[in-house]
Write a structure and sequence with these properties.
With 220 residues, the chain is mainly β. 6% of the residues lie in helices and 40% in strands.
Amino acid sequence: MRVNAASLVVICIVTGLNGCGGGDGRNSSPQEVETHISSDPAYDGDIEQTPTSYIVTQGMQGGVESVLAGIDPSTGDEFRAFLDFPLDGADGVPGNAIIDSATLTVLLDDLTPPDSGLPVRVELVSFQPPSLGPSQFDRTAQPSLGAVVTSEYVTGAEIGQDVTIDVTPLMVTAQQLGLIDFQLRIMEDLGPPFDVLMQIDDTIQPDRPQRAPELAVTYH
């Protein structure tokens, strides 16, 4: 669910005759809270692996308002994208919260070639300070704390649309480890290579709340 700004919605679960906040507190369900956190454009970025080096791009700015993941079919270079969601802010997740669900939503700007599909792997990583370097590309140097894989390929039919990925197990792990940032490495899934490149919107324009990568977490 996209919102105009990071917001906090308290949902009272009503069962039987128990009202929200009413009664003597017996047989009442815990309150569910849903929070929406936009990624931090200062720390979002991607790393490109060329045959001879790594090219690190971090921080959204004029001319750089997207992150890339996959393999560029024109060069064979591989890109891995990184998104950083702060968990300790006003709209973050309390350290004692129990996670019910979490979803990542990104706006797909482009897919090259557009008539293709990309199997996407999303990994939880953790490094502080959150400054990108070549080691974050390497899955041995920067090990994954957990991963989810999209059930279906991201396709060209989704260009210009939101793509939502269930990251609940990753958020549960982040909470158990007490991470202050929910950091994701987004890449082509492991296996035979697909020469497909995905471009994720990460604008810093006024409409960022409607287009930026967003983490939605429900907890109690």
